[in-house]
């Protein structure tokens, strides 16, 4: 998607983003009243006019079941990986060994790439160091990897995260792409296939 | 009475998890050798520890307004903590604050080299 | 209950002291940024635990503000670092 088409944001995406801001405002106040909704609405309009950001295009497809699956899985991952890293910290025999991996994603949507990066970083043990937006490649720093197998396992984990996200909010095109076998759609840069 | 007992146990265990997470983060900062691995130790307490602490408060004062505020806090931290980590990691990589001898593979290096040689600009832009 | 509070306090203070140590000695500016971030997170967890033990919710807004400022501080520092690096 070129910047020219991305700038013309559709009215529906605009409404979704505005209501997101209003809901956040109500959450901050801790209650939903008419006054809160009204002030939130005013603030949301002012904010989106003042701080103009490049528009994100929502795919318009939401599968609530997969959204739920994604969040539950994210929570489980956070808890599991937190305990793992906590153990690493305490383990006296731990010898540091990490890697930076290039992970080419299937999706071409900025939103899904952003959420995948967030989910990867939220799970301890991996941090996104750099992003190649044009090619949809994430460069991820992974901690505690010893062998080639560890690296490939981690790559598969990220692909699984991306797949869950695309199933939840991705466009039909992306859904088709993640369902294909990996070697057809992914351009492996630098890594082994 | 038993309800209070159960509540107390849940509170104590949640707070304990939060305390352990904070402790682990501190020790991790203390022990890990370079900026990037310290970042790993640092992002951890912010999420799990905070969720546990918030859960403990919610168990003790279950009101709708508290739940709503907690959702806001957790969404906020959940969205912003990775951004912080990413910004710091990026700055660390760019300014060479990492120990390359600890990396068993570095696939970003090849790309940085490619950009420096100017190959990136001659590449065809993606079609979509 | 009393014992639990003391044990949790000990763990929290170990974490906070280690983070402060990193703030003071940290070899680079980025180490200090990370460590102060951890320190803020520890303070947030302590505030939350205190609310849980005493059963009130008065410092919740403080938690929210701390979350916001911890984020803003770290990001501005990281940006400053990146800019300084380019020149």
Can you give me a brief rundown of this structure?
The complex is a heterotrimer of chains A (193), B (128) and C (87). Chain B has 128 residues and is mainly alpha-helical. In chain B, 80% of the residues lie in helices and 3% in strands.
Q: Care to count the β-strands of chain B?
A: 1
How many independent structural domains of chain C? Answer: 1
Number of domains of chain B: 1
Low-confidence blocks of residues of chain C: none
Number of strands of chain C: 0
Throw out a few tags for this protein.
heterotrimer, A: 193 residues, mainly alpha, 2 domains, 3 strands, disordered N terminus, disordered C terminus, B: mainly alpha, 5 helices, elongated
How does this model look, in words?
- The complex is a heterotrimer of chains A (193), B (128) and C (87).
- Chain A is mainly α and 193 residues long.
- Helix content of chain A is 60%, strand content 11%.
- The model of chain A is unreliable at 1-7 and 187-193 (pLDDT under 50).
- With 128 residues, chain B is mostly helical.
- Chain B has five helices and one strand; from the N terminus they run αααβαα.
- Chain B has one domain (2-121).
- Chain C has a single domain, classed as Helix Hairpins.
- Chain C contains three helices and no strands.
- At the A-B interface, helix 2, helix 4, strand 1, helix 5 and strand 2 of A face helix 1, helix 2, helix 3, strand 1 and helix 4 of B.
Topology:
The complex is a heterotrimer of chains A (about 190), B (about 130) and C (about 90).
Chain A: H1 3-7, H2 11-29, H3 34-50, H4 64-90, E1 98-104, H5 110-122, E2 126-132, E3 137-143, H6 148-169, H7 172-179, H8 182-185
Antiparallel strand pairs in A: 1-3, 2-3
Chain B: H1 2-31, H2 35-60, H3 64-94, E1 103-106, H4 107-117, H5 119-122
Helix pairs in contact in B: 1-2, 2-3
Chain C: H1 2-25, H2 29-54, H3 60-86
Helix pairs in contact in C: 1-2, 2-3
């Amino acid at each position: 998607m070129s910047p020219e088409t991305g700038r013309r944001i559709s009215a529906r995406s605009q409404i979704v983003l505005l209501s997101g801001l209003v809901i956040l405002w109500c959450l901050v106040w801790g209650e939903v009243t008419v006054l809160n909704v009204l002030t939130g609405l005013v603030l949301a309009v002012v904010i989106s006019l003042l701080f103009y950001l490049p528009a994100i295009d929502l795919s318009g497809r939401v599968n609530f079941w997969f959204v739920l699956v994604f969040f539950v899985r994210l929570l489980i991952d956070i808890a599991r990986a937190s305990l793992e890293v906590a153990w690493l910290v305490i383990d006296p025999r731990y010898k540091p060994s990490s890697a930076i991996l290039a992970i080419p994603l299937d999706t071409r949507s900025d939103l899904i790439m952003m959420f995948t990066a967030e989910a990867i970083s939220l799970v301890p043990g991996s941090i996104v160091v750099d992003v190649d937006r044009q090619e949809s490649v994430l460069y991820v720093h992974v901690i505690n990897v010893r062998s080639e197998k560890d690296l490939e396992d981690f790559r598969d984990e990220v692909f699984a995260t991306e797949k869950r996200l695309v199933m939840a909010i991705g466009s039909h095109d992306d859904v088709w792409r993640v369902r294909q076998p990996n070697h057809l759609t992914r351009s492996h840069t630098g890594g082994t296939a | 009475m038993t309800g209070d007992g159960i509540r107390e146990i849940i509170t104590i265990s949640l707070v304990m998890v939060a305390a352990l997470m904070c402790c682990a983060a501190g020790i991790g900062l203390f022990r890990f050798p370079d900026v990037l691995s310290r970042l790993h130790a640092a992002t951890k307490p912010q999420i799990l520890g905070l969720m546990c602490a918030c859960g403990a408060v919610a168990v003790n004062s279950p009101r709708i307004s508290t739940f709503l505020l907690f959702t806001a806090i957790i969404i906020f931290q959940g969205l912003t903590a990775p951004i912080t980590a990413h910004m710091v990691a990026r700055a660390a990589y760019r300014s060479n604050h990492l120990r390359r001898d600890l990396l068993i593979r570095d696939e970003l290096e090849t790309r940085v080299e490619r950009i420096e040689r100017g190959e990136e600009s001659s590449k065809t832009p993606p079609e979509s | 209950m009393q014992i639990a509070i003391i044990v949790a306090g000990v763990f929290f203070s170990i974490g906070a002291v280690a983070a402060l140590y990193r703030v003071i000695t940290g070899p680079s500016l980025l180490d200090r940024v990370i460590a102060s971030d951890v320190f803020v997170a520890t303070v947030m967890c302590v505030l939350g635990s205190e609310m849980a033990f005493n059963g009130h919710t008065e410092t919740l807004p403080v938690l929210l503000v701390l979350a916001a400022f911890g984020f803003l501080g770290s990001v501005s520092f990281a940006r400053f670092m990146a800019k300084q690096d380019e020149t």
